[in-house]
Amino acid sequence: MAEQSPPATTGVPDPGEVLSGLREALTVVLEADDLARFDIEAIDANTPLLSLPIDSMALMELMTRVEDTFRVYIPEEHAYRFTTIGEVIDYVRDRAAAKAARRQG
């Protein structure tokens, strides 16, 4: 499965791109029987992270994949504070925007 990259024009992925990247990462991180416990396409910004079958190790692997896909850094202590998928999306977009602003000078 191919990883998604942020758009080259602004460097800031839109919310749908980040959501797709998260869904993609979940399909890699979770075991098949865990994936069968929920509809991955039903995950949206309002989905609580605690509603997903992820433990702390899976969460860190998920965050690493998101970091690699969108080229942002998510500190471990921050990763544990996310409560919804939307918070992860917003964080990734904010970090990507900050990175793009630094590049533009």
Low-confidence stretches: 1-8
Class by SSE composition: mainly alpha
For the biggest sheet, the summary is: none
Which descriptor suits the 3D outline?
elongated
Q: How do the helices and strands follow one another from N- to C-terminus? A: HHHHH
Radius of gyration: 13 Å
The helix count comes to 5
Arithmetic mean pLDDT: 91
> How many strand units?
0
Instruction: State the helical fraction.
Output: 55-70%
Query: In what range is the share of β-strand residues?
Result: under 5%
Distance from first to last alpha carbon: 35 Å
Q: Can you describe what's shown?
A:
This protein has 105 residues and is mainly alpha-helical. It has 5 helices and no strands. The chain has helices spanning 15-29, 32-35, 56-70, 76-79, 85-104. The longest helix is centred in the last third of the chain and has 20 residues, at 85-104. It is elongated. Mean pLDDT is 91; it is low at 1-8.
